[in-house]
Amino acid sequence: MSSSQEWSELVSEDGLVYYYNSVTQETTWDKPDCLKGAGDFEQDGDWKWIPDNEEGYVVGQVTQELFNGDLAIRTLDGVDFTFPQNKKNPVKLLPVQLSSLNKLQDDLVKLDTVNDPFIVHNLRERCKKNDIYTYVGDILISINPFQQLPLYTAATMEKYHHGDADKLPPHVFAIADACYKAMLNRKQNQSVLISGESGAGKTEATKVILQFLAEIAGSAGGVEQQVLLANPILEAFGNAKTVRNNNSSRFGKWMEVHFDK
């Protein structure tokens, strides 16, 4: 049994609280029992990810199983609601450690626990901080913030073109720069696949990549605008209105950008 004198509460470079034992030299994200107060023990227990129509998933405890099989749930915020269950095919609720909720990662492969609820939680909480880009290895996930963010300045382009991408936050500029440098170094054509549902921001991502390539390649002719100005002609052949986008493309687009030696 360790004492409270052995443990210290520290803060990582990312601003996350962790705990260090000076005797055993153990580190942990979980608050040791000897440091917990009454409020901490109230939050201990069997917490689950609860599917939610609006949030995707919320964290809650099952306080009671009702006679019809439904579950009485209480969330971390103290909100009580009933979660419907099918007795013949009940939804399996995944466990969650409360201490893990603050351990957000800019690359999903670094998550301690990989499942749908925690991936949704990680992306949602990062987006709330305007961190709209997250890696999954070499793949970049982009969340549409539905607002203008100062992420695409000339200074940012310069940083990703001349800096160490491994030490920089995830960004669409990093993807564009990696393709451009691979083309120069390997003398091979490169491609970027941009996909997503209606209103996800595919056209905006295309525009940003073209702007980056035009800038670092020294193009003075506004190549990205020339390509994008062709969109109305393409859209006349197959666009439709969706619940998220009044002018959604119903087809794939293929764009080729050629560079002079």
Fold and architecture overview:
The protein has 261 residues and is an alpha+beta fold. It is built from 7 helices and 9 strands; from the N terminus they run E-E-E-H-E-E-E-E-H-E-E-H-H-H-H-H. The chain has helices at residues 38-43, 116-128, 154-162, 172-186, 202-216, 223-228, 231-235; strands at residues 7-11, 17-21, 27-28, 47-52, 56-65, 71-75, 80-83, 133-136, 139-142. The strands form 3 sheets. A 4-stranded antiparallel β-sheet has the order 4-5-6-7. The radius of gyration is 24 Å and the shape is flat.
Q: Which class do the helix and strand fractions yield?
A: alpha+beta
Q: Find the count of extended strands (DSSP E, 2+ residues).
A: 9
**Unreliable spans:** none
Give the overall average pLDDT: 84
The succession of helices and strands, N to C, reads EEEHEEEEHEEHHHHH
Helix content: 25-40%
Rg (C-alpha, Å)? 24 Å
Query: Terminal Cα separation, in Å?
Result: 69 Å
What's the shape?
A: flat
The biggest beta sheet is recorded as: 4 strands, antiparallel
Main sheet: strand order: 4-5-6-7
Count of helical stretches: 7
Work out the strand percent. Answer: 15-25%
